[in-house]
Each structure stands twice: as C-alpha cells, then as structure tokens.
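User: I'm curious whether this sequence folds into something compact or stays loose and floppy. Could you predict its structure so I can see for myself?
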Amino acid sequence: MTEELGYNCTGFFVKTDSDFFLVIDTDLDPFIVNEVVKIIPKDETVSFEGLSTGDRIGVEWEYVGDLDPRIMPVFSVFFLQGGDNSNIDKSALMKLEKLGYTVE
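Assistant: Here's the prediction. I'll summarize afterward.
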C-alpha cells in the first residue's frame, strides 16, 4: 500500500471472509455513491495488507467488469483515513450479506 496521492476513485474498504470490496463514496462516472465493487490486485505489487473494514481509500483502476458486483482490478491503493463498519452505508453491507459474504 502506498501513501502518495494519485488515485482516481475513492470509497470505503470492506474485507469479507473471502474477498475485498470498495463501497464507492462519490458519484464519479461510471460509479454511483454506495455502489459495491469487488477489488482485486492487478498484480503481486498491490496489497490490501494493513487495511481494515471502514478505512477510506483511493484506488487507481484500469477497467471495471460488468458482473454483480462489478469487478475492478486495481494497480495502486492509497490509505486516506481510518474508519470502521459505521462508515459504510447499511445498504452496501446488506448487499454483501445477500450475496453470501461475511464482513470482517
């Protein structure tokens, strides 16, 4: 995880029992506020280590896949602010639960 600026999308990090997600926090084409997007490292240089559910992060991404939830390979992660589950909209957490994920 890097701490310099250069991200092109922000949101709240969510760690589940099996995957990682970003709950988008701003309307920025092609996203809407509180949209849940599965984030995956583009390669082995990208890590989500040290992040906790509810932390606000910025990511640089290349494209977004059209699945539900959409998938976003990220090539940089930027820690912006610490947080917890209370930072995340309840509808986003409910969507993850509905899809079978357990938020950590």
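Summary: The first helix runs from residue 90 to 98. Confidence is low (pLDDT under 50) at residues 1-5.
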